[in-house]
Structure formats: structure tokens, C-alpha cells
Amino acid sequence: MRSSQRLVYGRKISHLFDLLRELVDRDMKLLYKRSTLGIAWTLINPLLQLAVFSFVFKTVIPVNVPQFSSFAFSGLLIWNWTQTALFQSTGLITSNRALIRQPNFPIAILPVVTTTTGLIHFLLALPVLIIFLAIDGIKPNSVLLYMPFLMLIQFFLTVSLAYPLAAINVTFRDTQHTLGVVLQMLFYLTPIFYNLDSIPKDFLPFYQFNPMVSLIEAYRAILLKGTQPDWQSLLTVSFIVAVLLPLGLGIFRRQSDRFVEEL
Question: pLDDT tier at 1 (50, 70, 90 boundaries)?
């Protein structure tokens, strides 16, 4: 009996992985359909942002950040993965009506698909970041082995936030616009193009409420400093994820019964 149950569970997991792969492949093709530059847009956007930041914070308002190109580009890649996935998650239900109306379709896989697509874009941009690191004289070392662990935390953090956003937007269609404003504010309140050390001590506790701050600092510790990340901060973020993921999934599942009605 147990062996048959294991076989059934194995087939279900295999089916979900196959479905995930197909949906991610579909998203990638739709995203760059009829685009001349195609997947190059993965790099064009952060590189243009980096060019602007480099001009502003090296020429107009100089900041004392060593290896600024690597510093800012790493922050942009990390932030853009989560920001893009969360923004796209708000339209997941309304833009996938055909799939959602299919019987027995696992709707809960959609936020995972969007986050996985963002992860692929992040991985595709990593070689360019490595080039920036090499230009700045930063040599890779063994601490890079911790990178997959950070990506795993960021992946589940993004998914845990994507679930409620996707569900809420079905009944409250202003969610996407509201989220755009919130993400824009958080972009400037996250040390992407400035150093965390430059923040007045009175405001530092408020920054600790943002889990992206701990993640960005952990990535930079590995990539730029060649040191181990702050494991205590990462443990806190992991605990936050462990709370948010079942909570977000629960909200999504409770709302999922109304998706077809609302659509």
C-alpha cells in the first residue's frame, strides 16, 4: 500500500515539474515574442539603470562607495528579480483565464512559474555581474557556494508574497497600481545604490523590517567582500518566509474558489 502511494505521489510531483517547465517556457516565449533584442532586455534595463546611477552618484552627488559599478549592479539584479515577479503576480489570475477554467488545473503553481521566470532572468544576468566584479578586481572564492542558499531564500520569499497579491487583485483590481507605488518607495528605501553604513543609526531599525535588505547585504558579502553572510539575519529572514509562505498560500487557496466567478 505504501509503495503504491509513493508511486502516486511520485507521478504527481513529476507532473507538476513538467507543468512548471512548460509554463515557464511559455512565459519566456510570450515575453519576447516579436522582440528584436529578445532576452537581451534582461540586461538592457539594469545596465541603463546602472548608467544613470553611475552618472548621478559619481558625478552629480558623489557617494563614497568603492567598486560602485559592481555594488549597484548586484543590488539592481537582486531587487529586479523580486520586484518584477511581484508586479507580474498581480495579473496572474486575470491573464490566465483559460488555464484557470480548466478542471483540476493546479492554480497554485502560477506564482511559482512567475518567480521561476524571474530566477532564470537573474541567472542569465549573473555572467555580466561577474564581468563587473572582474573589472573591479574582485576574485571569486569558495563563499560563492553559499549563493544557491540565498537564491532559495529569495525564491520562497517572493513566492510567499506573490500568493496573496495574485489573490487580492482578483477582487481589488487596484492592487497592481498600489503595488507599483509601494515597490517604487521600497526601491529607494533599500540600499541598492547606497551603502547601508550611510544610513543614520536612528533609522537603521526600520530597515531591518525589510527582508530584502538582509538578502542584498548577504549577496554582497559573498560577491563583493568574499566573506560569509550574516547568518543571524538570514535566519530571521528564513523565519519570516516560514511564516509568510503558508499564510500567503492559505489566502490564495481560500480566494481560489471565487476566481472563476470574479473572472
Answer: very low
Q: Which pLDDT belongs to residue 19?
A: 87
- Look at residue 239 in the predicted model and tell me its pLDDT: 95
pTM of the model: 0.89
CA distance 50 to 137: 19
Q: Where are the domains of the chain?
A: 38-262
Query: Cα(66)–Cα(3) distance, rounded to whole angstroms?
Result: 58
Quote the pLDDT of residue 60.
77
Cell numbers linked to 257: 474558489
